[in-house]
Each structure stands twice: as C-alpha cells, then as structure tokens.
Fold these 3 entries.
Entry 1:
Amino acid sequence: MILAGLEPRPSVLLKLFNLHYPGRAVTFQAVTRWLRGESIPSQEKLVVLAQLLKVEPQALRYGEVIHSAGSGAAQPYQQPPDEAMGSMERQTFDAFLQLTTAQRKIVRELILALIKVQPPQEGM
C-alpha cells in the first residue's frame, strides 16, 4: 500500500476497494484479515486489488514481485489491452469507474435488465 502511495490502514483500502469493486461491498473486518494475512481474497477481488495497488495479482497471492528481465525493478501491473474494446467502450468504462458504488449498482441493474429484454447478438 505504501508503494502505491496509500496509507497502510484497513479503512483506506476498504474505501478504495469498495469504490472500484463492482460486486458486493466488503467489510472492514475482511480487509483487516487480508492485511494481516489471515485470509486471501477471491481471485476476482485479487485482480481489483492488484490494479489498485499497481502490482501483479500473483504478488498479492504468493508474495512474489514480478521483475523485468535483468532489471531487478518491480514492474507495475498493467491489465492486458482488450482489442475488442473500442474508444467508446473505454470511455464508457472509464466514466463508470468514476461513479459511486451506489450509482454503479444502478447501472449494473440497468444493463442486466436490458440484456433480459433483448439478449446481445453475435458479433456485438
């Protein structure tokens, strides 16, 4: 957390994680157990944590830091680019990430309702 520029406190990670995680909010106790090494988050949550902390997910799970060949310097985690995602989708997703947790839940419910009304078609 310090290397990511965050104060190493459960409340700091709790707020940041719940702001960026699209699923059910986690509790203060869960984050405290993560930081103490008493429990390991699910893979889905580890990926979000890795993105927030700018490390590889396996560094969080196994305690390994990925180094570039020969440099010895830890490399920040970068999510692989999604070739299928166009500019409009990236802008929409970036805007979505700026929403509050409550607003994200509303958007998610809207998307799920739209899919029920008209399922996505091949190639879309």
Note: The helical segments are 10-20, 28-36, 43-53, 57-62, 87-97, 101-117.
Entry 2:
Amino acid sequence: MINYVYQLVSPHVFSLKYEEVDFKKEVIIRPKCMAVCHADQRYFLGRRDAKILRQKLPMALIHECCGQVVWDGTGSFQRGQKVVLIPNVPGRDDGVTYENYAEGSRFLSSGCDGFMREYVNLSPDRVVPFEQVPLPVAAITEFVSVAVHAAGRFMRAAHTRRETIGVWGDGSLAYVVCCVLRQLLPESRIFVVGKHERKLLQFSFADRTFLFDSLPEGFHIDHAFECTGGEGSYYAIDDIITAVRPQGAVMLMGVSENRVPVRTRDILEKGLTFTGCSRSGREDFVKAVELMEQPQFQKRLSAIIYEDRPVHTVADLSRVFETDLNTPFKTVFRWEI
C-alpha cells in the first residue's frame, strides 16, 4: 500500500514523500487531530544544532495525535474506534528501566517519521482507546502523559510530607503538571512560580501564584517541579534549591540546549533528590486518558487549547507552525489533508 508522508526537509520547508508500507500485521489509524510541541517548533525553525538537523531531516513531525482506526489485522480494535497514538517505540526491556528510557528505544518525530502521514501503522500496544474526550483535547494526550509520568516518579521518590509543592514555569507544561498534581494530590497546596502575570492568571486552581522576582522572604516548599527549560532553567533550579526544605524531591522536566550550573554544595547539605523526567510510556497514556475523561480535568485542559484552522494542503502546515509561535499555550489542528 502506498502511504503519503509529509516531511520537513529543511527549516520552514515541507515536502510530500510516498512510501510502500505493509499494513497487514498492525493497527491502521487515520490521524484526526494533532498538537504542536516545542520540540517540533525547534525543528521547523531550525533551532537545533546544524549537525543534528542534517542527521534527522527529512522527517515527518508531530508526536501528539489522536485518530480513528480504519483497519486492524490484529483484532484488537474496531473500525472507527477513537484512539490516541503512542510515539515511543520501546527498546530492550530489562525489567527495571521505564520504556521511555530503555536502551534502543525510538521516538517518532525525533529521528524517525512522526504522525504527519495519511495513515499511521502501529502495533496494538502503541494505541490507547478513548471515548468521552473531545478530539482537540485528546490530541494533547501525549503531553498529559508526560506530566502523569513525572507525577508517578514523584510519588516514588518524594517523602510523605507533601503539604506544599512548587511548580516553576507558567507555560503549557507547568499548567498540565499542575492539573495532574491537583487531581492526584488534592490535599497538597500547589504554588506556581512564573514570569508572565497574564499566563499565571490561567492557574486559577492553584493555591497561589508568584512572579519569580517577587518571591516572599522565607518562601519554602516541600518538593518542586521545574518546568521552565531553556535559559530559564538556571534561575528556576537556583530558586528551587533555596526554597525546598531538606530532603525534598525536585523533578526536572524542562529541556535546555545549554549547560546549566547548579549549587551542588546546597544540594548536598539539604540532601535533595533530583530526578530527570522525559517522555512517557503506555501506562502513562492509559492513566492520562482516565484523567481526561473526568469533566473537571477536561475543562481545565480545554482552557489552554487554541484550535487553528484545519490542515488541507502542504502550505497549511507552515501556517500552523507560524500560528503556534503566537499562541501562549497549546495549538491543535484537524488533519484533513
């Protein structure tokens, strides 16, 4: 069967590739709705090292996607069933390592084609069904699953005093992490530290919000999540080391292209635990769907989603990415090409 794949061949430039695919032993999905991630934007804008771009392009972007089953040779799903797609391809299972960190694992839209295709073929364990979730919300399931994964690792790493949790960042990642924490730890007080007052207004369900340069004297928390990334990572981690009480757990989630210095002396003196969290696995997707089918959680996610016009042509692909540059949180779009 001939499949159409829409690849980024160089920054800002998309092209159509035809490929022969044997779909007989996998689940065949027609993408319906997709979301843009910062990682996709870095490729689109060419904000990765030139050597990395040469290695990875051409490549179909997008790893946040939901769709409908059109055919399943495995008998696991029904035709027309709504599903979310898991971009992580597990590597070697050693019984210890999470699938998203396993040696030999691959990630679609990072070194191999993502979901910008006419049809997507996946093994059944890379597909999770859903029912009571609107497509624009279901499109960001992968993003929610990343927050679920971090929350799960936090539960295992953090001591039992969880009265106050600080979240550094005021973007989409910080928002979704707060949504997940509010749902899983309803008794904990959540404090959000950001730098954009208008964005912080969206965090109405948090207990308090603070501007990063106006933290009150004596501000302390039990644990923290760093969701800034980029140049903001240094300042966020520095603030966290100061604010977290002894033996606190710190979850690092923001991606930085540059080295970030940290005050190791204070980390040692306080006995802090730093945990790096990236991507997610199947069990995180299943939990994410479970949360997203709850009306209040779903409503909160809807508040940060901007739905752009549907994609009908290759030219529309660039429009979506350019629109996303001016969207404060998540951009989603219908896939009708």
Note: DSSP finds eleven helices and 19 strands in the chain.
Entry 3:
Amino acid sequence: MSINLDLPPELENQLCNEASQLNLTLSEYILRILSIRQVIGNPPKTGAELVAYWQSEGVINSRPDITDSQAYARKLRHEAETRERA
C-alpha cells in the first residue's frame, strides 16, 4: 500500500535526520515508527513480556557470534577499564 503525505518541511527534516542516523531511508524509518506505536501505547509490564518483545524484534540472538555472553561482557569491561584516555 502506498500513501502520500504532505509533511511540514521542519518535520520532514527532523525525520530525515533521524533516519540517516540509523542508516535508513525515510520510508523505512517512518514504517519503523508506525510499527512500534502499539508497544508505546501498551508497553511490556513484566519481564516475560519484555523478553517476548525483544525476541519478536530480533534483539535476542541478534549476535550469533557471541557464544558466551558473560565472557564477552567481561572482555568488554576489561577493554574499557584498560584503554588509554585521550
């Protein structure tokens, strides 16, 4: 389905800037915004609902290269603690 919208220039600029920060086209970004409106109106209320939401959005298991999350977190923490400051 195609819909034509006449956006005020200021709103169009804001949306374009936000889309570019996420490396999305304007259409992809607007579609993303519209698809999450139900979550905003009815946010997860329990941990189980939150996990189910993350799974449905592909966040959980989105990094198959990380096989041991605790070891990966320790590695990141160590790198952050030992990096040189500019």
Note: Residues 9-82 form one domain.
